[in-house]
Amino acid sequence: MPEILVLYHSSHGSVAAMAHEIAETLAFHGAQVRLRTFVAKEAHDIVVSKQDLIDCDALAFGTPTRFGMMASQAKTFWETTSDIWLKGQLIDKPACVFSSSSSMHGGNEATLLNLSLPLLHHGMLLMGVPYDVPELLSTTSGGTPYGATHVAGMDNSSELTDTELKICRALAKRLFTISNKLS
């Protein structure tokens, strides 16, 4: 079974909730899951290493939106990965992205595209959410064809909706299916 890295940064808990939902779905389907963060906030958090990237068969990567861009904690880490890039150690590994914003038009889609850039530079195989996921067509909160998203609300108190959870699960299942076929 594939080993899948779920890598995230979360400021107020929304992205962490998405990461855990994705990790649980991957484990349910049989993947070995490594859950990692960029900064340890809780005692149980494990900070990502470059070796985690090298060792994984696939990657799910998420951060909150910061003006349509990834969180600085993630960007700082990716800027240290030139040695992995030069060796081509992530080429052809499947990957997906996820994000959360405070408002419906808070930059989730731009952030998903921004999260994708280092993955594409590393030669990873980027996956989105296809339109055979019915929730993608009916969502009134988060969820895009570029990846899973959540709208947390201006006070960041909104929990993941049923639709957002289903989109997270669909994306995780797709990542598992493709990584399983490739490994």
Summarize the SSE layout with pairings.
Elements: E1 3-8, H1 14-29, E2 32-37, H2 50-55, E3 58-64, H3 72-78, H4 82-87, E4 94-101, H5 108-121, E5 125-126, H6 134-138, E6 148-151, H7 162-182
Parallel strand pairs: 1-2, 1-3, 3-4, 4-5, 4-6
Helix pairs in contact: 1-7
SSE series: EHEHEHHEHEHEH
Radius of gyration: 15 Å
What is the SS-derived class?
alpha/beta
Name of the level-1 CATH class = Alpha Beta
- Rounded mean pLDDT is 96
- Stretches where pLDDT is under 50 for at least 5 consecutive residues are none
Main beta sheet, described? Answer: 6 strands, parallel
Per CATH, the architecture is: 3-Layer(aba) Sandwich
Give me the CATH fold name: Rossmann fold
CATH superfamily: Flavodoxin domain
Specify the number of helices: 7
Explain the overall architecture.
With 183 residues, this protein is an alpha/beta fold. The chain has one domain: Rossmann fold (3-Layer(aba) Sandwich). 41% of the residues lie in helices and 18% in strands. The protein is built from seven helices and six strands. The protein has helices spanning 14-29, 50-55, 72-78, 82-87, 108-121, 134-138, 162-182; strands at residues 3-8, 32-37, 58-64, 94-101, 125-126, 148-151. The longest helix has 21 residues, at 162-182. The mean pLDDT is 96. Belongs to the WrbA family. InterPro entries: Flavodoxin/NO_synth (IPR008254), Flavoprotein-like_sf (IPR029039), Flavoprotein_WrbA-like (IPR010089), FMN_Rdtase-like_dom (IPR005025).
